[in-house]
């Protein structure tokens, strides 16, 4: 069981079970030619955002290269890894509960090792070893190359920890083993870390400074995926719009603003264009866009290439300028609405979604109303919505009282969700009667007779299976909808 419960994810909110994925078989074969099995098996499950899922694929590659085989049954694993998320308290609690479930494995097999990877490892460091006695390894997101050595340490009976964050690790040379993939769409990381310091957010603390991956390695990975039959890539970063690459070592790491000659720098719109050019039938998505950095150049590139999906996830967090300032989002309501106007002007019929937090420190009833009014104004197709959860060590935790009572946070969240459901329904109803192009992704969860896939605007469409194949593009006439999905008939 792996849980993908964050935004930045172009997929619907879902629990992914290992069985659902092509994990077992695909992975058994993933050990590269010439690498002998060391007779040990590992099991990995992932929580949190798409970036964590992409990281698990890097971990799988590192382990495969060291001779480990995978298993989708943790009962037979010598190594159990949990790639964790710290974004909200509930995310951490889910992982802690899950770890308790692995106690039985250790009882049965004293030699089995349990490793905590990812953001909780980074946040809690060796405190984790005190708090959760059954954990043997704690490995932060920038330390995965050291996993084989750490495993050896742990096998010899020591507790192994590496939570060093790096300024330049991007795992650029590692070819991920596609764990959570349907063979049709894949994640490709383009940046790591985040420099934004939104006051509520733990990510800069767990993932470290932002760094961009060299463009050649990104393009190469996309080409390889296309050659393997993939039909869609999603470029991933906490803030894709701040992607920056320069060959000039002097420029690397500096802010673009310091530069005189911008031609020396390869930015997100340049990268997006290069990725779009890999193949006209390879769909390109990306996530997440940051309102402060999403400029018109990116929108023009999206408009220019048919294979770049007309969909932007542009989290607003709050519709009130004062709250946004306390959140340290560095834009205000007007700036955000100007970006929305630019999207609608440059990319007609673009899907737009958001992330929203209710009950942030000091949020008044009027300020909450501003979030609702902004949602009505933008008419989001979809949103990921949360009530504020204070995270230790963040700017907000240090500076502001978490003073909105839980029941008010939850009531405001319910209002936001209710409004979003109305907006989603209106948006979906407007599609009835239209014909949309869908990339067939997988069987529908609800009915064996149906398949599903997303359209250009990232809406999930369900249609009868017929003789269609996964990975094929089809034209579907929309006949009905719910708040979450479109239903239709294949017309071509
Ligand atoms: N990089 C992305 C978001 C990363 S975190 C961006 O800047 O938009 C994903 C989402 O989790 C955030 O957009 C925010 O809505 C939510 N989130 C982050 N920290 C949170 C917290 N402390 N409490 C509640 N929600 C939070
Ligand atoms: Fe967190 Fe803000 Fe960075 Fe997104 S941009 S990861 S919300 S600090
Ligand atoms: Fe992602 Fe959660 Fe870490 S959202 S970056 S896995 S804290």
How many domains make up the 3D coordinates?
4
* Side-by-side strand order of the widest sheet: 4-3-5-6-7-8
Tell me what the CATH architecture of the largest domain is.
Answer: 2-Layer Sandwich
According to CATH, the fold-level topology of the largest domain is Transcription Regulator spoIIAA
Quickly name the level 1 CATH class of the largest domain.
Alpha Beta
List unreliable stretches of 5+ residues.
4-28, 249-260
What shape does the CA trace take?
A: globular
Radius of gyration: 22 Å
Strand count, sense and barrel status of the largest sheet are:
6 strands, parallel
What does this molecule look like?
It is a single chain. The chain has helices at residues 23-28, 50-65, 89-101, 103-108, 119-124, 127-131, 147-155, 203-207, 215-227, 268-276, 296-304, 321-326, 333-346, 365-378, 395-399, 406-429; strands at residues 2-4, 14-16, 41-46, 69-70, 79-84, 113-118, 137-139, 160-162, 185-189, 191-192, 211-212, 232-236, 244-245, 266-267, 283-287, 311-313, 351-358, 382-387, 435-443, 450-455, 460-464, 473-481, 485-490. By secondary structure, the chain is α/β, with parallel strands linked by helices. α10 runs parallel beside α11 (296-304) and α11 runs parallel beside α13 (333-346). The chain is globular. The two termini are 36 Å apart. Iron/sulfur cluster binds at residues 194, 196-198, 201, 203-204, 238-239, 290.
């Amino acid at each position: 069981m792996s849980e993908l419960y964050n935004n930045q994810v172009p997929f619907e909110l879902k629990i992914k079970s290992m069985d659902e994925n092509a994990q077992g078989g695909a992975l058994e074969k993933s050990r590269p030619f010439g690498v002998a099995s060391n007779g040990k098996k590992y099991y990995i499950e992932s929580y949190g955002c798409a970036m964590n899922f992409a990281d698990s694929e890097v971990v799988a590659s590192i382990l495969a290269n060291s001779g480990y085989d995978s298993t989708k049954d943790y009962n037979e694993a010598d190594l159990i890894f949990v790639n964790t998320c710290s974004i909200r308290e509930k995310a951490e609690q889910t992982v802690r509960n899950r770890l308790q479930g692995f106690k039985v494995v250790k009882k049965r097999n004293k030699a089995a090792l349990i490793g905590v990877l990812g953001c909780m490892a980074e946040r809690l460091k060796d405190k984790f070893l005190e708090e959760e006695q059954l954990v043997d390894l704690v490995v932060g997101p920038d330390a995965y190359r050291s996993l084989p050595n750490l495993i050896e340490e742990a096998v010899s009976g020591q507790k192994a920890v590496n939570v060093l964050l790096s300024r330049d690790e991007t795992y650029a040379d590692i070819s991920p083993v596609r764990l959570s993939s349907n063979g049709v769409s894949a994640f490709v990381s383009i940046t790591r870390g985040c420099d934004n310091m939104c006051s509520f957010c733990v990510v800069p603390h767990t993932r470290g400074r932002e760094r961009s991956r060299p463009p050649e390695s990104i393009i190469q990975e996309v080409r390889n995926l296309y050659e393997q039959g993939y039909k869609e890539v999603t470029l991933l970063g906490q803030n894709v719009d701040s992607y920056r690459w320069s060959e000039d070592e002097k420029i690397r790491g500096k802010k673009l603003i310091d530069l005189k000659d911008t031609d020396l720098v390869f930015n997100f719109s340049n990268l997006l264009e290069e990725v779009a050019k890999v193949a006209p039938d390879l769909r390109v998505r990306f996530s997440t866009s940051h309102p402060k950095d999403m400029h018109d150049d990116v929108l023009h590139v999206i408009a220019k290439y048919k294979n770049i999906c007309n969909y932007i996830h542009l989290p607003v967090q709050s519709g009130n300028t004062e709250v946004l300032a306390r959140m340290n989002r560095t834009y205000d309501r007007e700036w955000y609405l100007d970006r929305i106007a630019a999207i609608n002007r440059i990319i007609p019929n673009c899907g737009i979604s958001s992330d929203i937090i209710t009950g942030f420190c000091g949020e008044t009833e009027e300020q909450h109303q501003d979030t609702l009014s902004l949602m009505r104004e933008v008419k989001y197709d979809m949103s990921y919505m949360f009530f504020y959860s204070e995270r230790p060590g963040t700017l907000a935790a240090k500076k502001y009282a978490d003073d909105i009572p839980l029941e008010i946070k939850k009531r405001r969240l319910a209002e936001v969700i209710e409004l979003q459901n109305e907006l989603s329904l209106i948006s979906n109803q407007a599609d009835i009667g239209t014909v949309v192009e869908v990339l067939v992704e997988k069987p529908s969860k609800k009915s064996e007779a149906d398949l599903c896939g997303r359209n250009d605007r990232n809406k999930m469409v369900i249609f009868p299976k017929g003789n269609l194949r996964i990975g094929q593009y089809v034209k579907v006439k929309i006949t009905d909808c719910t708040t979450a999905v479109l239903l239709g008939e294949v017309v071509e």
